[in-house]
Amino acid sequence: MANHGLIIGINQYQRLKPLKCAKQDAVEMARYCRDEINFDEVFLFTDESDPITAPNGSQQETKPTYTNLMAFLHDFFESQRLETGDNFWFFFSGHGLRHQGQDYLVPSEGHPTLIEKTTIPLNYVTQRLRRCGADNIILFLDACRNENDFSNKSVGWQKQQGVITIASCSPTEESYEIPELQQGSFTYSLLEALRIQGENNCATVERLCNRLRERIPEINRQHNKPPQTLHSIVEPHYKNHLILLPKQAKTPDIELLRVEALELEVEGKLEEARQLMRRVLALDTTRPKYWQDYDRINRKLAQQPVPPSPKTEPINGESAKTITETPKPAAPPEIELKSAKGIDYRNLEDLLKRQQWEEADEETATVMVQVANRTEEGWLRVEDMDNFLCEDLRTIDQLWVKYSGGRFGFSVQAKIYRELGGTQQYDERVWDAFGDRVGWRVRGRWMVDVPFLSTFDLKSPQGHLPARYFFAFTTHKSQHRSRWILLFSCVETCKTITETPKPAALEEIELKSAKGIDYRNLEDLLKRQQWKQADEETARVMLQVANRTKEGWLRVEDIDNFPCEDLRTIDQLWVKYSGGRFGFSVQAKIYRELGGTREYNERVCNAFGDRVGWLVNNSWIYYTDVTFDLKAPLGHLPHLPIIITQGIYIGGLSISSLASRLVKCNI
Predict the structure, then answer these.
(1) Do 121 and 215 reside in the same domain of the chain?
(2) For the whole model, what pTM was predicted?
(3) What is the domain count for the chain?
(4) Which of 28, 52, 143, 638 registers the highest number of CB atoms within 10 A of its CB?
(5) Does residue 328 lie within any of the structural domains?
(6) Which domain holds residue 471?
(7) Partners of 42 in beta bridges
(8) Tell me: the pLDDT tens digits for 244-275?
(9) Omega of the bond prior to 466 within 30 degrees of 0, cis?
């Protein structure tokens, strides 16, 4: 697994304000890659960097001019130098901009009015990088400088196909240099995070991004700089689990990567599955199951026709497009109701098909004791779980996953447990976190300790069902835990997850706006279930739409005249990514069910506040008390404390106005 890097830092610009720390950012990043994590090759471009040897043997200057950078991108990526399993890091610290929907990086002689002729499209950079052969390409971009002269400084907002983009700030923000540190806050925080050792290391993309989201604003506050929030786009999403620092990777990190590979196998994305399994084997060659997975995927690939190669259009002005003709995977076949004990699973399938979740949960418990020959006793022992028949476990799991659209099932629960770091050894912290995540533990109390009241609804937390087999089979807590952990082992042994059909993708939402608002950041936050940031972003875009950004709050008349196109887009995004739990239309439906109309009614509004969790003990909650979690009451979000008059939030009046507007907009 080879590691290569292209690192650029530009302080001196001919036609733009100079920067103070960009060169040092690049030098420190190059030193880290070369000396601390032993990259095979690092190319450094700064105002004073040494020449490099071009593929033809000549010496090439590394002053970061347009000509030098374009020549490097052309010459060094004309042929495939790397292979699957290798990594390529691209780091840029300097000026950047966004122009006509495209991201651009500005070389040292970039001109603010000759953008197409003197700057480099980020699409073109990624197109060239993809030619190197590495299947893991990461862009680290610090190019939204507060010192630049462009009207739109945001860079890193544009999704780059198959590439991980980690940008220094969100699209509406600017990035800052910290003279006391002699670095930008982004690069300082990035190197600090990469150097963390032990339990809290940032070995994976996901952990690195989470750390930077916390640390960059903290650094800015300490040095009296405005807020700056990391913006990341991980394409495709499973690359969140890619391992950046192999020496710091833990077993759960490797297992999670393997699970992603198995899911890609199910989806028919065999080449991507093979790439991930090669990464798994590069990290750990001692486990026979890893080699079995890899061999199985290779056999499937050998039986497939070779897919057509991507066609790449040459760079033309402002963009470069990559067109790949990818055949769609076949629809998943019907589930074969197999049983090693002759169990009839048609009743279970019928109950799940009709979404009778409680009855299906009871039927699951019934058939499981039948399989284990424990019908008379009515409960399963730990040894029964340890020896549970794969054929039956697979059938039960596949039925749950298929008819719940991927929300419920043993493999869903097992994946959550592994994501939390769970292994075959009992760990109280992981166990409690698992209970919280699937909704089996409420306010620190397990449902087994109180009358069992599971939520038999698709709106319940992911992995919430099936559950009765867990709570009903024994009264000993230690056996609950042991049986569950053994069930995960069975799922692993039986490879249940590898044969689980995937639900159809949710319908894409067209991000329409009557005011030209870009809703991609809101969609990205909701997709990643960053509910608080999404709530804040919703407030920000609504103020933009209503031309009330300066005032920072909306009047009732602003809601009455809010463009339907924008209201519909915002609502659809919230409803889609919350699984129907959050959104304006969800709130309006509750309000109308309680008897709400256009006219303000204190009783109805209080009942509404109580229902959505905004009114607690007869007091309206503060924004700091909002629950940014899918476990919050139906309709709890978006909260939006921006609808005020004379500084007082008017929740009741705002919901009546909003409900009325939704009706007029036919939402």
Answers:
(1) yes
(2) 0.49
(3) 4
(4) 143
(5) no
(6) 345-496
(7) 5
(8) 998 888 888 999 899 899 988 988 889 889 88
(9) yes
